[in-house]
Structure formats: C-alpha cells, structure tokens
Design a protein that fits this description.
- The protein has helices at about 15-25, 65-70, 115-120, 155-180, 210-220; strands spanning about 5-10, 30-35, 55, 75-80, 95-100, 110, 125-130, 140-150, 195, 230, 235-245, 260, 270, 275-285.
- With about 280 residues, the protein is α/β, with parallel strands linked by helices.
- The strands form three sheets. Strands 3-2-1-4-5-7-8 form a seven-stranded mixed β-sheet, with helices on one face.
- A hairpin with a 5-residue loop joins strand 12 (about 260) and strand 13 (about 270).
- Helix 1 packs parallel to helix 4 and helix 3 packs antiparallel against helix 5 (about 210-220).
- It starts with a strand and ends with a strand.
Length: about 280
C-alpha cells in the first residue's frame, strides 16, 4: 500500500466541503485536484470549494475527462454534486469512484429524494456511501448511517443531519477505503424505486388534503429550497413554516382553503380537509 494515495474530489455543497476538508487534512492523501461549481451556482447550501487545487468547472465534468485521466488518481470522491459522473471516469482510478446518496439504498434512488421522503412522511432515512457504476445510485454499498426524521424537522434540519453523517462515514470508513479493506455489499437492483426531479407543480398546496399531508409538503421544501406555494384568499404565497391545529370546533362549515383567522403577528389559520393549519411564516408573491 502506498503511504499516500492520489485523490480527486468532485463536489460543492456543504456536505461536499466536509469531504473536501477531510481529504485536505488527511496526512495519507495527496489531493491533486478538486472540481467545484462556479460562483453562479444557485444550488441550496452552495459552498465554493477553495484551494490551489480547485477548479470551478464550466460546462460538464465530461469536458475534463482527459485532464482527470492525466492526473492518474488512485481514487475519485464525489459529494454535493448533482451531475452524473461520466462513464469514462468510472474506471480511471484503480480504487474507483466513491460518493454518497441521502437514502437507504436501494430505496429512493434518483433526484430530490429528501424532499420526497419528508413529504411522504418518512420517520427515518439514511446516508449511503457507495461505489459509482453506470447504473445511477446502483453501485455496491460500503456503509449506511441511519438519519431520523423527527416530526418537527424541516428540510434544512435533515440536511444538517446529513452533513454530520457525511463526516461520520468519512471518519469511520475512509481509513478502510485507503487500505483497501472496506467491504462492499451489492445492491439488489430489482428492489427500490427511482424518484424524479421535483418541479414547480410539486410545490403547490391542495388545501383539500389532510393537515399532515400539507404540513409535510411545507417541511419538505422550506428554506433553503424554493418553498411551498398556496392560494390564500385571492393572493399567492410562499409558505415556509406551519403548525397543525387539532381543534375540531372552530370554523365549522368552512371549506378547505378558507381563512379562519388572521393574527396580530402575521400568522394565518387555514381550513384543511380534516382540520386546520396555522401558517406561521409566509411571503406574498
């Protein structure tokens, strides 16, 4: 085994910075290059990876295949990166390409998975460290750390938990990866499902849904995500935070979407199919 291994890093969000900084400070790593987003990136929790070895890529990572090949890396690590890694890079490094996915693979492959999980009422998820293959999110699993989703957790809370899990997995498993001792388990690709990328239509609140369903949607796409959209009266709002109100005697006879009360602090009580939501943070569009 080499005393140092040559690593190329690809990423640029908060969890990517955690991986990058771990590699920078690891005495057994020669971080030869880092590929990050340009300053124009508008991704939530964007962090520009700094350092002499850092390259703010423009265009696709595929444009840098020959450059990366020329670096002769032992390992490529990916975190905080939405673009698929070009297939030409998967076999460039003898130790492969290793990255992370915020789900209990083989469940919830694909895009926008944390938002889907929160909206669907998951009580827990996981961060999976896995080997990249041509099959998206389908490579061998090196490790998973379970991440609880509490009833009052919003998406930013879960992203914070994912950052902590990223550091935990790096600290526990990177030494084994470096030594070639990290066992990996094949995924059963007949199991699980793919999540699609969310669009604006997925952000709209239907007041004729149960309070918990609406509340989960609000939690799923609150800051730093785009926010849930709703009609309240004749106006359109972005809804950032809410609370379920379980009283069943106020506003009897009101239809879902009806405003029951407006309070001095700006919060609004709205009728749902089975109860009420107190909207505590919103902005008019």
């Amino acid at each position: 085994m080499k005393e140092k291994i040559k690593v190329i890093f690809v990423g640029g969000l908060t969890n990517g910075k955690i991986v990058h900084d771990y590699l920078v400070h690891n005495q057994y790593v020669d971080l030869v290059s880092s590929f990050t987003y340009t300053d124009e990136c508008s991704a939530p929790r964007f962090v520009r990876i700094e350092g002499e070895e850092s390259i703010a890529r423009s265009g696709s990572l595929a444009d840098y295949v020959e450059y990366i090949k020329g670096q002769k890396p032992d390992l490529i690590m990916v975190a905080g990166w939405s673009e698929l890694v070009p297939s030409e890079l998967l076999n460039v490094a003898p130790m492969g390409v290793i990255g992370f996915h915020p789900a209990k693979l083989p469940q919830d492959r694909g895009r926008s998975v944390l938002a889907w999980q929160i909206e669907d009422g998951y009580k827990e998820t996981a961060l999976t460290m896995f080997k990249y293959t041509d099959y998206p999110d389908g490579g061998d699993i090196i490790a998973q750390e379970v991440v609880p989703i509490e009833e009052n957790d919003y998406i930013n809370d879960i992203l914070d938990k994912m950052d902590k899990a990223t550091y935990n997995l790096m600290r526990a498993y990177f030494p084994l990866i470096r030594k070639g001792l990290a066992a990996a388990k094949k995924q059963d690709l007949s199991e699980g499902q793919f999540r699609r990328l969310r669009g604006e239509m997925d952000s709209w609140i239907d007041w004729d849904k149960n309070s918990e369903v609406i509340y989960n949607k609000i939690r799923a796409i609150s800051h730093p995500y785009p926010g849930a959209l709703a009609k309240i009266g004749k106006e359109t709002y972005k809804i950032w935070r809410a609370e379920i109100v379980k009283s069943h005697f106020i506003g009897e006879g009101c239809q879902p979407g009806c405003v029951i009360a407006r309070y001095y602090n700006g919060s609004v009580l709205v009728k749902t199919r089975d109860g009420y939501l107190l909207i505590t943070e919103m902005e008019e569009l």
